[in-house]
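[step 3/7] inverse_fold.run input=structure_tokens len=323
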């Protein structure tokens, strides 16, 4: 008997349904950490998701570590262009309705994605959902309480307009964005080669309400990198100040282009004044003025924490070498 040849269907293949969530991992020379980040994403349950890892031109073993995951993740390999370009590339390669960002040196805790999906479902008008992170050392031992201590939610645009856009915002690995919100505010400006999350927590709250979850749903690894040191030096402080200035410049351009009516003023940026004061000799009169400015700073809604931060300026000295 001659076997019947199988017939080929004329129907085109149906595309795979889009996942509910896209986990977007950005990596640069974190080969020693990125597997932990990927594993924490792949172990999530309760929602459909995809994991996309963008390697931004690493020169260590990162790409081999990523390749070992095969088809479990979607790898995007690019030349080094900075964090903004890596995060933008991850979004461009994704299909999920919710975008969950993850730095390669951090990780998600069990239940993270399910909690995020539930929060967006409960608040359909929200553009951004965030949670606390637990700071740890390289040994995973907790280092202090979860951050940020103060939580903000709802419409925080009026407060941000009085603080040069500053609020107790979360780190990258705590941020999830509805795709419609991303499309509305646009991709992260390429100039943010580091701390690109400043665009997400700066632009989106001017257009959409935000939701804060009180639990720590991720780990935030404390180690020396291009943005944080065990102790600040002058170049680090100047880098932060330049970043804050660039953020206000970009946000003002965004607010103007969208005719949103808000404008930010560096004169309201208390952390910038504190950093500048650490770069030069500061007398009692300067410290007193800084203290009073801190008491009025709109970027910290919690009265006691705002008072604590202001009091610290009374003991401020030139703590770094200005050279």
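[step 3/7] decode complete -> sequence:
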């Amino acid at each position: 008997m001659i076997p019947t040849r199988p017939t080929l269907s004329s129907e085109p293949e149906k595309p795979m349904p889009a996942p509910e969530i896209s986990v977007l991992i950005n990596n640069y020379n974190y080969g020693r950490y990125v597997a932990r980040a990927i594993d924490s994403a792949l172990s999530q349950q309760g929602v459909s998701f995809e994991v996309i890892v963008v390697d931004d031109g690493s020169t260590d073993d990162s790409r081999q570590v990523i390749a070992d995951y095969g088809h479990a993740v979607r790898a995007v390999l690019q030349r080094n262009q900075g964090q903004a370009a890596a995060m933008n590339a991850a979004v461009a390669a994704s299909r999920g309705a919710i975008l969950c960002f993850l730095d390669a040196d951090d990780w998600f805790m069990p239940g993270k994605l399910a909690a995020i999906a539930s929060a967006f479902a409960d608040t359909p008008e929200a553009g951004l959902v965030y949670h606390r992170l637990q700071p740890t050392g390289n040994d995973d031992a907790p280092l202090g309480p979860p951050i940020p201590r103060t939580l903000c939610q709802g419409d925080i645009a009026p407060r941000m307009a009085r603080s040069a856009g500053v609020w107790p915002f979360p780190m990258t690995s705590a941020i999830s964005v509805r795709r419609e919100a991303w499309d509305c505010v646009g991709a992260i400006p390429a100039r943010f080669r580091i701390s690109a999350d400043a665009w997400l927590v700066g632009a989106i709250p001017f257009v959409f309400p935000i939701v804060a979850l009180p639990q720590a749903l991720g780990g935030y690894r404390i180690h020396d990198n291009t943005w944080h040191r065990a102790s600040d030096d002058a170049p680090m402080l100047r880098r932060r100040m330049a970043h804050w200035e660039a953020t206000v410049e970009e946000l003002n351009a965004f607010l103007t282009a969208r005719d949103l009516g808000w404008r930010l003023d560096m004169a309201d940026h208390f952390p910038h004044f504190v950093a500048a004061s650490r770069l030069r000799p500061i007398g009692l009169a300067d410290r007193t003025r800084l203290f009073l400015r801190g008491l009025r700073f709109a970027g910290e809604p919690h009265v006691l924490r705002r008072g604590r931060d202001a009091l610290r300026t009374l003991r401020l000295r030139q703590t770094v070498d200005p050279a």
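[step 4/7] annotate
Residues 21-221 form a domain with the Spore Coat Polysaccharide Biosynthesis Protein SpsA; Chain A fold (CATH 3.90.550.10).
The two ends are 90 Å apart (CA to CA).
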